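Notebook, p. 212. Picked up where the previous page left off. The plan for this session was modest: take the two constructs that came back from the sequencing core last week, fold each one, and keep the raw output in the notebook itself so nobody has to go hunting through shared drives later. Recording the first one now, exactly as returned: residue sequence, then the structure token string.
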Amino acid sequence: MRRVLTYGTFDLLHYGHIRLLQRAASLGDYLIVALSTDEFNASKGKRSFYPYNVRKEMLEALRYVDLVIPEDCWEQKQSDVLDYKVDIVCMGGDWKGSPRFEYLREFCDLVYLDRTDGISTTEVKERLSDGGAAR
């Protein structure tokens, strides 16, 4: 069984998230999503619209996701890979080359997937604040 792990906040779940999770799931047999906790987001200067438990519930409802675990800090990635026997860490292409992930190549494969054009949580929040509709 090939286990795939990805990380994210997955706030305001949208079709870009779904497509990323679908492609990540297609890389293996079991998809683990490490979901940023509210406390971890706060430490990064971010605040989610939905609290952790709601974001977790939404991810768990998706057929592509087998397990959701909390992401509490940057430093947990190596232990996640080892503890969950992960074969592939999969991240959005905007993280390519980041030292936050590149060191994991010592423990597993690392795959970067391009983001879906035309959608991001930041863009959704901006459009909502401007009263705009989905495109």
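Okay, moving on. Second construct, recorded in the same format:
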Amino acid sequence: MAHHVTVMTRTGCHLCEVAEQDIERICGELGVAWSAQDVDSDPEWRAEYGDRVPVILIDDAEHGYWRVEEDRLRKALA
């Protein structure tokens, strides 16, 4: 099954920028599709994830937040 990673992000968030760079690199190496979504574009997302951005989702299930744990992410996507 092909996975999809989503980074829940926010404009002006430094940790979000770092997480997106990490996800882009890791997913690029593994051939996994990924996207970024702005939590402030949807009230439900803001309520769910707003205090913890960046939040990493794998196949719409929460995997982690604030920082990308590379080893854990690679295992989840393997």
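Notes on construct two before I forget. The mean pLDDT is 96.
Flagging for discussion at group meeting.
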